[in-house]
Please model this.
Amino acid sequence: MLNCRDITKQASDYVDGHLSVRQRLAFAFHLLICGQCRAFLRQLRLAVGMYHRVPAKELSAEEAAAVVSKVLASKGE
Ligand SMILES: [Zn+2]
Model:
């Protein structure tokens, strides 16, 4: 049976749908009996939802060039 530590380790995979059916069942069973993990998962889902609603900032050509030159400079070290 999963414990709370297992739940925090697997929570993002659960939210992203990357767990097997067996793992999801074990995860869901723990959520049934543990209010703390239900609250944790609720917060995680809120955070993930907010992250996906924030539009990605587009880089200007100057910013992109600056990133490329920094990467190239770091590879030269
Ligand atoms: Zn728990």
